[in-house]
Amino acid sequence: MTQPAPAHPPHNDPSAAPRPIVTLDHVTKRFPGVVANDRVAFDLFPGEVHVLLGENGAGKSTLVGMLSGLQTPDEGGILIDHREVRIASPARALELGIGTVFQHSMLVPSLSVADNMALGGPWWSRPDRAGVARRMAQVCADIGVTIDPAAKVGTLSLGEQQQVEIVRALMRGSRVLILDEATAMLTPKGAEDLGALMGRLTRLGIAVVFITHKLNEALSFGNRITVLRLGRKVGEIAPERLAALGPAAATAEIIRLMFGTDAGAPADAAPRRARPGAAPLLVIEGLAVDDPAVPVERVDLAVAPGEILGLAGIDGNGQKQFAEALAGQRPLRAGRITLAGTSLERLDVGARRAHGLRYVTDDRLGEGTIGGFAISLNLLLKQVGESPFWRAGFDQPEAIAAHARRLVGEFDVRTPSIETPIGKLSGGNIQKALLARELSGAAKAVIFAKPTYGLDVNNIRATRQRIREAADRGLAVILISTDLEEVLELSDRIAVMSRGAVVGVVENDAAARGRVGELMSGVTA
Amino acid sequence: MTDTQISTPDLTEADRRDQTARAEARAELWRGRARVALLGIGPVIGALLLSALVLLALGVDPIAYYGFVIERGLINPYGLQATLTRMGPLLLLAAGLIVAFRAGIWNLGGDGQFLLSAVVVAALCPLLAPHLPVWLVLLVGLVVGALVGAVWSVLPALLKAYQGVNEIITTLMMTFLGVSFANVLVKLAFRDPATTVPQTRTLAVADRLPRLFDTTVSSGLLIGLVAVIAVHLVMTRTAFGLKLRIVGANPRAAIHAGLPVPALTVAVFALSAALAGLAGAVEILGVQGNVRADWNPHYAMTVIPLVFLARFNGFGSIAFVFLFSVLSIGGESAARRTGVPNFFTLVVVAILLVMLGVAEYLDQRRRAAGK
């Protein structure tokens, strides 16, 4: 999973006229168990749209958080106009001229546009609505947008609300504007308008940081592109190079950067071999799930015993909805699920589990466990009332404790005691406990949702080993992951999910990386 | 620990680590218990001291007041028997609250459930008494009381289970409706034609719940004790109780684990409200015998802080209900003797609540500092 990061050429053009407004000087930010940013260097020039690309968990949000004052770097420094500064709070970031427009609106919907602009003023004075409107009109004229200051924010479209936030940031004197996944909620037309607006902003000499998942937007709106992967900066395409490459070559270059190039991959990641000729154990036909955000449509998958089917895709493309519907937590709209010849689609969670279907959730603390309950109970969370742990409805402390001790030993859960509340354990040990719960007993098929998300290197290795062992035992495995390296390392075949549908299934061979990357980015249909 | 190691020198390193870990876990457990006990008793002492200051400000000798309270509520045999009788319905209400609170459902509608059940039982049982044996009348009364309580929680239960409507609001509203409705019933439908003041017919003393041994203590106390202990065991030891606790602790985990969350929610409401209704029946069948118009002892609201003080623990609840009963029975006669208003007991409970909040806050700060 470790790709040799291409040595990033520093801004090696001394004749380049503008000096960077903001420089991140090899910043590192660690969270418990994760290095979110690893010595990332990043320059921001006036009059440029600098696109930040990367998968979920690549470290984009952390980088933005450090620029906007939500987080401070553990190592490295931030320079503004070549002077080192400490951005300890969002207010300080604004003072320094860095304005951020977050993905979700930070406006008060029940107030008018002008009142939203006046928020943050001193509490004892009346908002100067006329003055605000006047200054607003000027900024709007500068950047070529029209906003009615008296309109209630709640009545504006999402695109208009973003314009309001941009205007607000400019009125506060921002020279740097960060747009965090600004197009994620917009219609294609709205995204285009925003792109045009970014162009006008840069002509005023403002530096824009534009964060997106979408390659086409990065290419059409961006002047400079930086790609992050797993917390490291893996490449930067300077404006002149971007212009020279042209869209097709640039796309290829970005895919190479985002998903890595080495077709050979690490030695131990040689594609596994499914048992030949085995009939599918888990068959999913025409699965459809209703969801306000990402409805899932016509998913057809078949997994043989001993096979690992990777489900790749950018996060939020229906993987969670699919997994929950498969496990029985969420109603199906249509479709059939067959496990070893038994139809599961009408059964509830408990019955599906009893038939051997297991689901290792990625939301370990939110739904997988109850933080305040003892490990021993969390290990039995899906078997409450079953013998021999409960007899005639009463708990059997001996049986419960023996079961917990056995699993804690087998799965190497490091804990002071089986009575310890599970919430006190580290993320890796909580994941081990979850694996113990789902992989023990008569499992036939397992769905792993982002099984290594947020774990450290050792626990990632241990978890991947468990997944391989599960398949070697003859289980049908579906591995949902947004980490392409992981999917490539473990899977026999790889399905790609995009906007709620499986857009393709490929064999995990030498060409898989490129094909999957293309399917994921929506470059080819 | 040291002794163990010396006496068994061939203990492997792993065993020793294991033992140390277990000893630590045990010590942790005891520290936790001591902390809980302190958090329960500390506020009580604080509240009594602060109440004493209020009494001083009123010009009343607090020692004399507390002396009367203890004498009349605890030492005097009649007082003690009244105290124990008062505990019956309070314990049933506490049991109902423990079920709900442990399942994360804030049933604050106990007073409405209690009062409606009391009125229906008070109207029904005197009518049945001439025709049925006493034990059957009492049994019917208890069952009907529990059913009436449960029925009055159906609307909040369904709204919570299937629409996610906040049950704090709905149960409180149902209490307003229930209390008013109970009054309407007493004044119009169930009014005893033989009396001038509006009240229901009266159940003859001979037909009420039997007294315990040779005392005046109503057997409602036994029903209450059995209910609290049973609820405590169900919630801590059974699969059903664990399911309710899972729903209460993390509803999303409950869905993930495949528990029928809406059905369990309705079951919690039914149980909790049935116990509140049972409390109403016990109060009528054991103590009051009838319901006068505008009678509302607000027992359920009074029990809520006690259950919180006990951390939803059944045995702790018994202790706090006992303490409150002493305060309230003793407070009634102390009020007469010292000229302090009768409801001073409520002042003590209110201060107790504030002290509970303070203790909770201090404990959290201490724990936050410890980490």
TrEMBL record, chain A:
Keywords: ATP-binding, Nucleotide-binding. The keyword ATP-binding applies. InterPro entries: AAA+_ATPase, ABC_carbohydrate_import_ATPase, ABC_transporter-like_ATP-bd, ABC_transporter-like_CS, P-loop_NTPase. One of its GO terms (molecular function) is ATP binding. Residues 22-255, 281-524 form the ABC transporter domain. SMART domains: AAA. It comes from the Bacteria. It holds the Pfam family ABC_tran. The keyword Nucleotide-binding applies. Belongs to the ABC transporter superfamily. PANTHER family: CARBOHYDRATE TRANSPORT ATP-BINDING PROTEIN MG119-RELATED, GUANOSINE IMPORT ATP-BINDING PROTEIN NUPO. This is ABC transporter ATP-binding protein. It comes from Ancylobacter radicis. The lineage of its organism: Bacteria, Pseudomonadati, Pseudomonadota, Alphaproteobacteria, Hyphomicrobiales.
TrEMBL record, chain B:
It is found in: Cell membrane. Pfam families: BPD_transp_2 (PF02653). Keywords: Cell membrane, Membrane, Transmembrane, Transmembrane helix. It comes from the Bacteria. The keyword Cell membrane applies. The chain crosses the membrane at residues 36-58, 78-101, 135-159, 171-190, 217-236, 257-279, 299-327, 339-359. It is a multi-pass membrane protein. The keyword Secreted does not apply. PANTHER family: ABC TRANSPORTER, PERMEASE PROTEIN (PTHR47089), GUANOSINE ABC TRANSPORTER PERMEASE PROTEIN NUPP (PTHR47089:SF1). This is ABC transporter permease. It comes from Ancylobacter radicis.
